[in-house]
Amino acid sequence: MFNGIISIRNKNGEEKVKIERPGGSLSPIWSICWNPSREERNDILAVADWGQKVSFYQLSGKQIGKDRALNFDPCCISYFTKGEYILLGGTDKQVSLFTKDGVRLGTVGEQNSWVWTCQAKPDSNYVVVGCQDGTISFYQLIFSTVHGLYKDRYAYRDSMTDVIVQHLITEQKVRIKCKELVKKIAICRNRLAIQLPEKILIYELYSEDLSDMHYRVKEKIIKKFECNLLVVCANHIILCQSWVCFLGETAAVPVLQRSEGAGVADGVSHSLHQGDRWPSWKRRPLSGAEEWTDPEDLRGQSLCYRPAEAGHSCALLGHECLP
């Protein structure tokens, strides 16, 4: 209601639970939705109010977790894919996708006016959006597979914000909760690299035991990168853009493969979109940075960035060296 109160009643209209949102009339309740999932232990109510908050409650009225802050006034909230995700729209003129816990994942679609309603087609990945200017939009959401494989270890994204590492022989699994959208994953030897929207996390195994499944954070690179491919090496990580320049011509790089060497002497071979394959590159240290060069007259090159506080380098193919 406009006074910031939620009243839960039975089918006869008798009030059973009363929930009062902080702020009262300054945080009018604008949209609510029950989670349709049958796998949840409790009935969960998602609440969007004009205090620019999203909150979650059990049927008993007990709040689940903390309020999730927004930077706009929400006008509609609904669950997507059987309660696994949340659709949220409002005065920011767009529909955004959130996890069922309220972590923002990305934008579904931008509009020209306030979004007053957004609903998912049951048992599908289609979403319809209605706006203040009378327009109706129809979207199909497709989730890509984000994973990495190294010998008997397979790492993959789960629930968009978690990473699961599975040992293919022992079938052991470990879950790493990142609490942010996982964009890229790379795994090699005892290292695991996870790219998040504003940073990259590098994990390593606790021990050299081949069956060990305990990972700990080794380094954090607090920087936003845009890349299509992520590769982790012995002491470096490589981020590859869509295009790289060779002899004045641009070509797509859909495949980037690491070649193991002795110690940290890793090389990289890459395949171009038109089918060409270039040999491994040797690593040559420079002051303050690293450069990967093609042994055949430097026909391809990439510069990479090494943060002073981190022991890793990030290669950006075809881009200027970052400051």
Automatic annotation (TrEMBL):
SUPFAM superfamilies: YVTN repeat-like/Quinoprotein amine dehydrogenase. Its main location: cytoplasm. Gene3D superfamilies: YVTN repeat-like/Quinoprotein amine dehydrogenase. Pfam families: Beta-prop_IFT122_1st, Beta-prop_IFT122_2nd. The keyword Repeat applies. InterPro entries: Beta-prop_IFT122_1st, Beta-prop_IFT122_2nd, Ift122/121, Quino_amine_DH_bsu, WD40/YVTN_repeat-like_dom_sf, WD40_rpt. The keyword NAD does not apply. This is Intraflagellar transport protein 122 homolog. It comes from Homo sapiens (Human).
